[in-house]
Design a protein that fits this description.
It is a single chain. The chain is α/β, with parallel strands linked by helices. The protein has one domain: Alpha-Beta Barrel (TIM Barrel). It is 32% helix and 14% strand. It is built from 11 helices and 13 strands. An 8-stranded parallel beta barrel has the order 3-4-6-9-10-11-12-13, surrounded by 6 helices. It has a two-stranded antiparallel sheet with strand order 1-2. Strands 7-8 form a two-stranded parallel ribbon. Helix 1 runs parallel beside helix 2. The longest helix is centred in the middle third of the chain and has 20 residues. The structure holds flavin mononucleotide and iron/sulfur cluster (SF4).
Amino acid sequence: MSLFDPGFIGSLEIPNRFVRSATGEFAANTDGTITKLFLPLFSNLAKGEVGLIIGGDLYVLDEGKASHEMAGISQDYHLSGHKELTKIVHDIGTNSKLAAQLSHSGAHSISAKAPSIRDDMQVVPMDHDDIENVIIGFRDSAIRAKKAGYDAIQLHAAHGYLLSQFLSKRTNQRTDAWGGSLEKRSQLLFTIYSEVRSVVGSNFPIILKINGSDDPSEGFSVAESSEVLTKLTDDGLNAAEISGMNPARAIKKSNEAYFSSTARKIHTRIESLPIILVGGLRTFKMMEKLHREFVDFISMCRPFIREPDLIKKFKEGKKSVDCISCNRCSKSPNVVSCMIKNVKS
Ligand SMILES: Cc1cc2nc3c(=O)[nH]c(=O)nc-3n(C[C@H](O)[C@H](O)[C@H](O)COP(=O)(O)O)c2cc1C
Ligand code: SF4
């Protein structure tokens, strides 16, 4: 049961148990097409033998983009850049797989469209047509992702973006078919999953990134996320990446793998669902322990920004990552990169 052994997400073989969690590249053109700056980022991860690389969030509707540097998959003219990217990863020859993360930023998008009004933010509540457009946006973007040669799709339902806003009682105060009970708050996610599944087919891997619970958990509890995941697992979901609010935290020894306890609770309830754990995984020892216990895949973001060749180094005996979780990379000026790489950690 080594972390270097292959594993499966649905029918897709992943050459080892390491996942690069979605990482916004901050480097697209203003029309959402990807620039040449993306290419070395992805080829270095593939050369570094990352088993599954999840690309940064891609907007599925133009109005759902979060920033002008964010890449899109909402239009056919976005396709050629994605085709180039998937080809580069697949041609490296390390068998790394590549997933497209499909996202709508909701209240954080340039349109500020959200499930319902909020006290803490200026937002525009979505009407029925807006919601229909979101469903169509995810469906059509999934078709494009498959056409572009991605090996899997990840639906982004975490971190307070649109699907996560719909799941949470705190941010979804609608009283129609899309809000209220858990069943109604989950309806948008369930409908999108079912539409995406119908267009990509039963053999194409779909992964969900979801908060194991919100913080504070009154908005969306671990019992509720388990219920949502149980239904989706019954409907053929292939894996869940368990995250949470405030996903990129500072790390001390005591909070390494800070979402592991919620992920463990979810695993106890749904043993058949492959778990990808993200959030502050920093030592090989901890990764091995969690893999022995219940985690199928170990996912990291910031450590791979600093060391795209981390997996090769682990193979050679490296014991922990160099990244110090300072989050300065979140403010990278041109393309996401480690801002303190030359400073000794
Ligand atoms: C610069 C940066 C960009 C990120 N972009 C995304 C993203 O596009 N989609 C997403 O789901 N999470 C994104 N995240 C969150 C990470 O995927 C991950 O959940 C979080 O950083 C915790 O993992 P880590 O401790 O290994 O960094 C981003 C985090 C950082 C620091
Ligand atoms: S800037 Fe900080 S958090 Fe980002 S990769 Fe570098 S060390 Fe890690």
